[in-house]
Amino acid sequence: MAANNWIPIGTNSGASSDYSWTSIPAGYNELILRGHVQSATSSFMIRGELRFNGDTAANYSASEFGYEETGSLRWYAAGAKNEGYFCYIGGSYLGDWMSLVECHIYGVSDSNRVTTFNSMASCGAADSGYNANIFCSGMWENSSTITQIDTVNMNPSANSIMTLYGRK
């Protein structure tokens, strides 16, 4: 058993257009995605998003709150999205500035409730002033057991790594 009863399910690392965890076993009460990620996209920051079971329909609600880039407050909420908001991560524009990311996913095997998730991410580019501390949350309006999780729009760089854990 892993610490705090978190059971490792799978790890993705390195450069990729996005990460995917497939064939997630049933029986978990909660999942957690944890790691450090930077986007290879040449920008200050990008918003990473999640999809469950390959669902690309407008079945997600999402919100975000925090400080990004030069210290501006960011707040946004929306429904009927094609993916859920997951995290803000640093882009490659300012060099190497990995984001620490953690996302808890609830209701993953409970057919009586929809899936909800909340995450936090933080990164910083030191003296350049482009830093972020962002909290995201959302809902996948579906009560199916989660068997697949995909990140969207992240474009992870070569030094990125994320592990999916489950708790029964």
Topology of this structure?
Elements lengths: L6 E7 L6 E2 L8 E8 L7 E8 L7 E9 L3 E10 L2 E7 L8 E8 L8 E10 L6 E10 L8 E4 L8 E7 L1
Antiparallel strand pairs: 1-12, 2-11, 3-8, 3-12, 4-7, 4-11, 5-6, 5-10, 8-9, 9-10
**Main sheet: which strands, in order across?**
1-12-3-8-9-10-5-6
Number of strands: 12
**How much β-strand is present in the residues?**
over 45%
Global structural class: mainly beta
Q: Could you describe the largest sheet, including whether it forms a barrel?
A: 8 strands, antiparallel
Can you tell me the residue ranges where pLDDT is under 50 for at least 5 consecutive residues?
none
Inertia-based shape: globular
Q: Which features characterize this protein?
A:
eight-stranded antiparallel beta sheet; globular
What can you tell me about this protein's structure?
- The structure is a single chain.
- An eight-stranded antiparallel β-sheet has the order 1-12-3-8-9-10-5-6, with no helix packed on it. A four-stranded antiparallel β-sheet has the order 2-11-4-7, with no helix packed on it.
- It has strands spanning 7-13, 20-21, 30-37, 45-52, 60-68, 72-81, 84-90, 99-106, 115-124, 131-140, 149-152, 161-167.
- With 168 residues, it is an all-beta fold.
Structure summary:
This protein is mainly β. The protein contains no helices and twelve strands. Strand 8 and strand 9 form a beta hairpin.
